Amino acid sequence: xxxxxxxxxxxxxxxxxxxxxxxxxxxxxxxxxxxxxxxxxxxxxxxxxxxxxxxxxxxxxxxxxxxxxxxxxxxxxxxxxxxxxxxxxxxxxxxxxxxxxxxxxxxxxxxxxxxxxxxxxxxxxxxxxxxxxxxxxxxxxxxxxxxxxxxxxxxxxxxxxxxxxxxxxxxxxxxxxxxxxxxxxxxxxxxxxxxxxxxxxxxxxxxxxxxxxxxxxxxxxxxxxxxxxxxxxxxxxxxxxxxxxxxxxxxxxxxxxxxxxxxxxxxxxxxxxxxxxxxxxxxxxxxxxxxxxx
Length: 294
Fold this sequence. Notes:
By secondary structure, the protein is an alpha+beta fold. It has helices spanning 11-14, 19-35, 47-61, 65-69, 109-134, 215-220, 275-284; strands at 7-9, 38-42, 78-81, 86-91, 152-158, 179-184, 190-192, 200-201, 209-213, 230-232, 240-247, 254-255, 273-274. The protein has one domain (7-284): B-lactam Antibiotic, Isopenicillin N Synthase, Chain (Jelly Rolls), CATH 2.60.120.330. The strands form three sheets. An eight-stranded mixed beta sheet has the order 1-2-9-6-11-5-4-3. The mean pLDDT is 93.
């Protein structure tokens, strides 16, 4: 069986001086996206920014509870504690955007987050370029639709459970948007549910990026590429930190079946919808996707 999240060295996409190497990476990503829509990216060049953003996450979640509560989420930005985990969302501010983020008073925090966002967006652009090549739609297809992308960075902390407590997975879900870059701290817990099997652990070493596709890209590719259900099971030994970066195109981008993903055996299964309409439909539940039982 194909690995749930094969390891792919994406460095050739970022330093494209080896055409054969780029072709091999494109082929590996295409295969992973057809199988589960997950792969583990190494060679991404984000080592320094990633270390800093994890340091910022540790600072944030170490604050007193009343200081975190003062950052309570508003307009999709800020802090939430739901009992099973803590999270903090930051919106990528584009040149035409308004900063709605709720920044903590921590030295260097905002700078670390914004640097990571900028550099992670460059990595996402390289991955999307590879997908465009694999889909035979022109290498700038996605870049042309990301002048003011709707992107969010999320910091997550899953507290360790007691030795006597049974593992309790988080809610099974798929990501809503185009692609997600998930920075990992090496603590296990992420699981995926391929269409042809049960739950499988994703093995991602510290400092790697778990890259996965969201429902929007699955729809765009007429389900040629997969948006696979996943969940997190917390460790009994230690807290688990992760930093997903959710990447979406411009709000007014029309998401419709890509021509190369439609043929007589695979007619277009979806009506056109704008990116912002699709995301809102997934958030409010009017656009649903089937999920396996937990």
